[in-house]
Amino acid sequence: MAHFIGSQSRRSFIKNVGVTALAGATGAGAATNANAQSAHNARSYNGPFDFDTVYSRVGTNCSRWDGPPQNYPDGVFKYGMGVASMDFECAPCITDALQERIAHHNYGYLTGTETLKDCIVKWNGERKGEDLHPDQIVLSDGVYPGVIAALRAFVPANERVVVTTPCYSGFYSMARGASVQTVDSPMKIVNGRYTFDFDDLETRLRAADVRALILCNPQNPTGNVWKRDELLQLGRLCLENNVIVLSDEIHCDVIRAGHKFTPFASLPDQAVVNNSVSFSAISKTFSLAGMKNAFYYSKNPKLLDRVNRYHRAEISTLGVVATEAAYNHGGPWFDQVNAYMDENHTFIENYIKNNLPTVGYTRNEGTYMTFLDFSKTMAALDAEKQAKEQNARTPEHFFRDWLVFETGVYFNAGSDYGTGGEGRVRMNIASSRSVIKDVLDSIANAVNRV
Ligand SMILES: Cc1ncc(COP(=O)(O)O)c(C=O)c1O
């Protein structure tokens, strides 16, 4: 079992120790002092790469590991399983490209980004059969700014955008950023799989003030990889009701074996495609979110023009270098990490089946999130009453904190993901297997006693 140090002491501690000591003090599992030796242990861009050795990110101003402990007494928080970034050391080609660039000591304005657009066209063409043209692509410093621009373009202030829930909590902040309202269309669980509720959607889309729908494909947090027919039906319903589809595809590369990602813009109905704008990045694929690099595109130049009027983003020099390196040389690294994360999902599914009989599980098809149902534990704890007594925002926030105090594990509260998030938590599974096992052992130890 790992013993992490609290945020305040951690900072002064970090100042005084070397990398090896830091990793030894903070990492989970046996191999935690290996950051230094594992640094770029695999120079070959074809791997094999080591994802089993725990790579400590503590003390790097990292939102996944350094954010939550600020809200708990020192020593309580141990495992950051919330924010959607990977814990693995990045692909060696990215570090190499950055090192080469920083050998030149000047970071003035960039002159052009054509090569980055070419990388986007190539990666999406080769991996997803997409037929993109650089003129259809607009670079951005995140999916957030692109979607906010699109909401401003298509939804008049205080009118509404539909989200199918549970959905990425950021959609609510994007809507706030664009001064528009959201409408939840709750999904249904049919035969253990989340599905769109088309009857509910039809009612919501018919409303006169609903102008756009944000689609999440693959869906964060439920892990759905939407099938072509589901997307077509959704797209046609939106088109019939004059509702524009904003397709957030940031998780598009993280697809489990046996599933296939369908880009919305590749659907076999041109009218449906022309009624959409897609948003994507490889920031989830390679854990490059801090490099601030994303893009959006549409097959319909009129829609693209409308979004562009509300969008202005400057991307950073190092972000371009890192992203191009990932596109050009990172494929083998990603294929291996994706297979590793697929095995993490299977490990979690089996662990829950065998050791956590009260926890509900829906099988993931993609993403490195899993959405777990703890409603039985929450009911046994009377989380609703406890939340009121302790002034917690929702019963799920009470339960999140209960877990931190009982186990040291921090998950995201299900209520942040809209209607349908009740009783749930979101777990990030992009960690070394020993961390996943320590986390689940701690959870089982606490939850099975309730
Ligand atoms: C579905 C989804 N969209 C957008 C984002 C954020 O994208 P960005 O960091 O590019 O703004 C996330 C991050 O977790 C996400 O899961």
Detailed description of the structure:
This protein is of the alpha/beta class and 450 residues long. It folds into two domains: 7-92 and 331-447, Aspartate Aminotransferase, domain 1, CATH 3.90.1150.10; 114-329, Type I PLP-dependent aspartate aminotransferase-like (Major domain) (Aspartate Aminotransferase, domain 2, 3-Layer(aba) Sandwich). Helix content is 41%, strand content 14%. It has a seven-stranded mixed sheet with strand order 2-10-9-8-7-3-4, with helices on both faces. It has a four-stranded antiparallel sheet with strand order 11-12-15-14. It has a two-stranded parallel sheet with strand order 1-13. Helix 8 (170-177) links the parallel strand 3 and strand 4. Helix 7 (143-154) packs across helix 8 (170-177) and helix 9 (198-206) packs parallel to helix 10 (228-240). Bound molecules: pyridoxal-5'-phosphate.
Describe the structure concisely.
With 450 residues, this protein is α/β, with parallel strands linked by helices. 41% of the residues lie in helices and 14% in strands. The longest helix has 25 residues, at 331-355.
How many runs of DSSP E, i.e. beta strands?
15
Rg for CA atoms = 22 Å
The CATH class of the largest domain is: Alpha Beta
Give the low-pLDDT segments. Answer: 1-42
Class inferred from helices and paired strands: alpha/beta
Mean pLDDT metric: 91
Query: CATH superfamily of the largest domain, please?
Result: Type I PLP-dependent aspartate aminotransferase-like (Major domain)
Hetero groups in this structure are: pyridoxal-5'-phosphate
> How many domain units?
2
* Number of discrete helical segments: 18
Name the strands of the widest sheet in spatial order: 2-10-9-8-7-3-4
Helical fraction equals: 40-55%
* Largest sheet properties: 7 strands, mixed
* CATH fold-level assignment of the largest domain: Aspartate Aminotransferase, domain 2
CATH architecture field of the largest domain: 3-Layer(aba) Sandwich
Q: What distance separates the N and C termini? A: 21 Å
Indicate the proportion of strand residues.
5-15%
**What's the overall geometry?**
globular
